Amino acid sequence: MRLFPCAALSLAAFCASVPALADPAPLPLTYAMFEQAVPHIDLPVCPVPLDGPGRFCRLTTHADGLNVFVFAEEGEQPLIAFQSWPADLLAGLMD
């Protein structure tokens, strides 16, 4: 399944409106789908509230938010968590 740019924007808008996921069940989005459709930055480590064994994180920006997507390392690498933070957290870094 290939997502096109408009689908990527819809995905980002949807995910930005969803709070951190509490349900541990994998979501039907794989890293392969995400990587092709969503511009992102590979994070060397996951943020503390999302960190754990067997996972990796990717960062996006959308609607003045920093959005971190967490994927499982095993299998088809499904999305297993998501969290957003306000972009103004970076203000101190830009001084």
Task: Walk me through the topology.
Elements: H1 5-16, H2 31-37, E1 41-42, E2 55-62, E3 65-72, E4 79-86
Antiparallel strand pairs: 1-2, 2-3, 3-4
Question: What percent of residues adopt helix (DSSP H or I)?
Answer: 10-25%
Measured between the Cα atoms of the first and last residue, the distance is: 43 Å
Report the total helices. Answer: 2
Instruction: State mean pLDDT (0 to 100 scale).
Output: 80
Order of helices and strands: HHEEEE
State the low-pLDDT regions, or none: 1-10
Largest sheet: 4 strands, antiparallel
Content-based structural category: alpha+beta
Taken from the alpha-carbon principal axes, the silhouette is globular
Strand arrangement across the biggest beta sheet? 1-2-3-4
Integer-rounded radius of gyration:
13 Å
Beta-strand percentage range: 25-35%
Total beta strands? 4
Features:
globular; 95 residues; 27% strand; alpha+beta; disordered N terminus; 4-stranded antiparallel sheet; 20% helix
Describe the protein's architecture and organization:
- The protein is of the alpha+beta class and 95 residues long.
- Helix content is 20%, strand content 27%.
- The chain contains 2 helices and 4 strands.
- A 4-stranded antiparallel sheet has the order 1-2-3-4.
- A hairpin with a 6-residue loop joins strand 3 and strand 4.
- The longest helix has 12 residues, at 5-16.
- The protein is globular and about 40 Å long.
- The model is unreliable at 1-10 (pLDDT under 50).
